């Protein structure tokens, strides 16, 4: 699993730039870039904060149980789409 890509997707989905994410995380923008490019390791408490800021708590749960978060998010999107079509 490429955690950096998952972090980047969560940030972009939340509508945040790297600069905005850095400000909310209290880290330099360059650190956000390094995290998203798997050049540095994210601490557990920072991962939790990232998920709260981006409203991607499902990503955190998927990571904790060892499931690829991208797959979970795609499946949820398909379920929601099917539910809306059903209504």
CATH architecture: Orthogonal Bundle
Return residue spans where pLDDT drops below 50 for at least 5 consecutive residues.
Answer: none
**Protein structure class:** mainly alpha
CATH class: Mainly Alpha
What's the average pLDDT? Answer: 84
- Main beta-sheet annotation: none
The CATH topology annotation reads as 434 Repressor (Amino-terminal Domain)
Give the helix level as a range of percent. Answer: over 70%
How large is the share of residues in beta strands? Answer: under 5%
Task: Please compute the radius of gyration using only Cα atoms.
Answer: 14 Å
Give the ordered list of helices and strands.
HHHHHH
Spatial shape: globular
Number of helices: 6
At the fourth level of CATH, the homologous superfamily is lambda repressor-like DNA-binding domains
Q: CA-to-CA gap between the ends?
A: 35 Å
Number of domains: 1
What is the total tally of β strands? 0
Task: Give an account of the 3D structure.
This protein has one domain: 434 Repressor (Amino-terminal Domain), CATH 1.10.260. The radius of gyration is 14 Å and the shape is globular. It has helices at residues 3-13, 18-25, 29-36, 44-53, 57-65, 69-86. The chain has 6 helices and no strands. With 87 residues, it is mostly helical.
List keywords for this structure.
87 residues; mainly alpha; 434 Repressor (Amino-terminal Domain); 0% strand
Helix and strand arrangement:
Blueprint: H1 3-13, H2 18-25, H3 29-36, H4 44-53, H5 57-65, H6 69-86
Helix pairs in contact: 2-3, 4-5, 5-6
Pfam families: HTH_3
InterPro entries: Cro/C1-type_HTH, Lambda_DNA-bd_dom_sf
Domain HTH cro/C1-type: 7-49
